[in-house]
Sequence to fold (269 residues):
Amino acid sequence: MSRRMLLPGVLACLVLIGLTAGAFMNSIQNALTLPARSPNTTPAQTAPGKQPAPPTTTSISPTATPATMVQMPQNILAQDTFQRANQFLWGTASDGRPWGGDANVQANIFSVHANHGQIMNGNGTFNALLGPPSVPNAEVMLDGSLSHFDGTANLGVVLRYTDPNNWYKALIDGKHLILLKHVNAQSTTLATVAFSAQDDQSYVMRFRVVGAMLFARVWPTGTTEPTNWMITAADTSFQTGQAGIRVVLEPGMTITVTSFAAATASSNI
Fold:
């Protein structure tokens, strides 16, 4: 076949191919184009047959409110709710006053743990004092527990405390609520009433001294405070002194204090 006859045929084929490609160009372009993706976004990988999990949200709990005492008079002398970091000794109370007595000396026995005051690893009598050193009429309130009552160990609070040998004390020993006076290292029971206290149960103790009259009551934490004093007594051995906590421990026992407060008192109600 001559070259003149071949050339028109080739030109005709090229024209036909061009027309065909133009007709399908949009379809071919769409097939070769990838879907658009936001920058830095990775497609989620979901197992077959399962829906993607919803986004995880973190809820923030409100800040815990420090433990509070049963309502005390407004004229507070000293107070501690133990809302502070774990530490040896009781250090400085929540009212800014330093603890006295054994509470800031016996580091192997007194500590603050989990927002509670602890007295443990001891054998014998220990004192923790807080507030002004010389107050005539006052009351104290303690919220605390003892891990085991054995007839000797006790949990108590003191008023008109002048030194380790002179004070008034209200205590629970597992079977009784007792009022004591300790004069020149000699103890005398002023009054006692039956009260069954359970191991590791938290109790609130309230002790008041006005003039020559002493009053005390105790009740389980979280229950209603009794309206009447459980025991009363009269004594004139001491006229002023400090408020605090006084306990007796046996080996292996732990006393846990949630809160302590002392206030001036002007009546016996």
Summary: Residues 3-32 form the longest helix (30 residues). The CA atoms of residues 139 and 208 lie 4 Å apart. The radius of gyration is 40 Å. Residues 76-264 form a domain with the Jelly Rolls fold (CATH 2.60.120.560).
